[in-house]
Amino acid sequence: MLFIDSDNSFTQQRFHQIAGESSNSLSELIMLFFPETFEEQRILVESLNNYVSPQLGIVVIDSMSTLYRAAFSKAESVFDLNRDLTRQLAYLADLTRSKEIACLITSQVHARLNSIGDQVEPVARRAVTYFPSTIIRIRNTPNPKLREFKLERVRGVDTKDVRCLLTLNEQGFAEL
Question: What integer best gives the mean pLDDT of the chain?
Fold first, then answer.
């Protein structure tokens, strides 16, 4: 596994809690990267082919939009910033297709206030929803230990109302 932690949220304590007794052997299979700027994230994503091996099964980016959002307020050109995000997503889409490696991308969300009601959507919605062939939206529920998972797209085809509820415990998510 290659884990790009743009959120700076990966902790050894939580990893050991989830992995349990296997944490020592599993930790040897994880490559961790902590980009500090959107530019560093871009360089890392564009160099992912250097890390591809038969043992690499998944690339995780948590969160694709954190450093993008931070760079947005300082950007001289929003066009260049959006192009860089789109380019990173295109690199990841190509990696999943050409190397048959799974890629899990999280995105920050923001509320869009309108007259119909509040709608939560990903930051840079157009870019982060264009490239992935599968999209799963995770929503909070009134119960802080319960999450709703909605499958929105599978293999490029939009789905209709495929949902499930999972509980959040010390080991991660579990069926009810």
Answer: 87
